[in-house]
Design brief:
By secondary structure, this protein is of the alpha+beta class. Helices cover 35% and strands 29% of the residues. It has a domain at 3-128: tt1808, chain A, CATH 3.90.1570. The longest helix is centred in the last third of the chain and has 25 residues, at 120-144.
Length: 181
């Protein structure tokens, strides 16, 4: 059984059973283009990189699924799946040969065989658990720098806020002066 048959008969059904493409807001993007391919000259490109599946929920790419043929080992597509996840900046990636599923969390480096694909809501919750930590920490640091002025309004110290944001995101704030004519 080749890869296309494995995808059609096993992986598509496993994704649908988990709710992908069934739950409102979830979407399975098949043959998702990643790059056009290496430029070889004279306006020609090499073979384009395409992920077998990209799982989206509420317009956010959450996972990449790499499919392999039924007779291939389960971990055959792990390297390729990790490469695609890195190029697409996606946290979760999966490799499957139709007989099993190998899951990888690119951010926490947890990987191993899993029984089923996670549901869209479950994957979103796992995605937000780590994603929201820096944002909440930044909000807490900014709120501690707030002070109450005589009129009762809360106002932040702009210089502290700018330093914090520039350190966090490595942005450079430049004051632009109008040009004299």
């Amino acid at each position: 059984m080749n890869e296309a048959e494995t995808r059609a008969e096993y992986i598509d059904h496993a994704l649908a059973a988990a709710g992908w493409g069934v739950v409102e807001g979830s979407r399975i993007r098949r043959e998702y283009p990643i790059t056009l391919g290496r430029i070889e000259g004279h306006g020609k490109h090499g073979k384009a990189l395409t992920a077998d599946y990209v799982l989206e929920y509420r317009n956010t790419k959450l996972a990449v699924v790499e499919a392999k043929a039924w007779d291939k080992p389960l971990t055959e597509g792990v390297g390729q799946a990790k490469d695609y996840a890195g190029k697409l900046a996606v946290r979760f990636t999966y490799a499957s040969n139709g007989q099993g599923i190998y899951g990888i969390d690119m951010e926490t480096a947890v990987e191993g065989e899993i029984a089923t694909f996670p549901m869209p809501e479950e994957l979103t919750i796992r995605w937000w658990k780590v994603k929201s930590r820096p944002v909440n920490a930044m909000k807490k640091r900014i709120s501690t720098r707030l002070s109450r002025f005589g009129n009762g309004n809360l106002r932040g110290y702009k210089s502290s806020w700018r330093k914090l944001i520039s350190a966090k995101r490595r942005w450079c704030f430049v004051r632009i002066k109008p040009m004299p004519y």
